[in-house]
Write a structure and sequence with these properties.
- The protein is globular.
- Strand 6 and strand 7 form a beta hairpin.
- The chain has five helices and seven strands, in the order E-H-H-E-E-H-E-H-E-H-E-E.
- A seven-stranded mixed beta sheet has the order 1-2-3-4-5-7-6, sandwiched between helices.
- Helix content is about 30%, strand content about 30%.
C-alpha cells in the first residue's frame, strides 16, 4: 500500500468509496465529487496493483466555492484563535479496504504535507452517530474543540483538531 496524489482515472472508484461511506460523509454525484476534489488537496491510498482503495480530501479555509458550514466553522475558528488550519473535508475507503490502517496512512501523508500549518481540523458525526470515527481520530491525536447541530438536531457534528507543530 502507498499514498499518492489524485489522478482523474481514480474518480469512479473514489466515488464508490465515498458512497459506501455515507452517512459518515455526504452523498455526492460523480460530478460534484470531482468538483470538490478539484478544490482540494486529495491523497489516494492505493493497493499493490496501483488501484485506488480510498481517499482523503483537504480544503483550504477561504475557498468560497465550497459551500460547507463545517468549513465556515473552521474559518471562524482560525480567525478566533489566530491559528493556521487545514480542513479535512472527507475520508472514505472502499469497504474491502477497511481495517488495514489505510486511513492512518492517508492522514500521515496530510500531516507531512501540511507540516507548515498549526493544526489540521475535521468534523465527525454525532448524529447520526459515528463512534468508530471518533475513536479513530482520538487515536491519531485529535481532540474535540466544539460541536454544531443542523436540521433541528437531526444532524450534529463534533469538531476536532490535531496539532501539526
Amino acid at each position: 500500500m502507498s499514498v499518492r496524489r489524485f489522478r482523474i482515472s481514480d474518480l469512479t472508484v473514489l466515488h464508490s468509496a465515498n458512497q459506501a461511506s455515507v452517512p459518515g460523509v455526504s452523498t455526492e454525484t460523480l460530478t460534484d465529487l470531482k468538483k470538490w476534489i478539484d478544490l482540494s488537496v486529495c491523497f489516494v491510498a492505493e493497493g499493490a496493483n496501483g488501484a485506488p482503495l480510498g481517499f482523503l480530501t483537504l480544503i483550504e479555509p477561504g475557498i468560497p466555492d465550497y459551500p460547507s458550514s463545517n468549513l465556515r466553522w473552521f474559518e471562524d475558528y482560525a480567525t478566533r484563535t489566530g491559528k493556521s488550519v487545514i480542513y479535512v473535508d472527507r475520508i472514505a475507503l472502499l469497504p474491502e479496504a477497511r481495517g488495514q490502517r489505510l486511513g492512518e496512512a492517508l492522514y500521515q501523508a496530510a500531516f507531512e504535507h501540511f507540516s507548515d500549518r498549526d493544526e489540521i481540523g475535521c468534523e465527525v458525526n454525532i448524529a447520526p452517530p459515528n463512534p468508530g470515527s471518533h475513536r479513530f481520530h482520538q487515536r491519531l491525536g485529535f481532540h474535540q474543540i466544539g460541536e454544531q447541530s443542523f436540521d433541528a438536531g437531526a444532524k450534529s457534528v463534533a469538531y476536532y483538531v490535531r496539532s501539526l507543530t
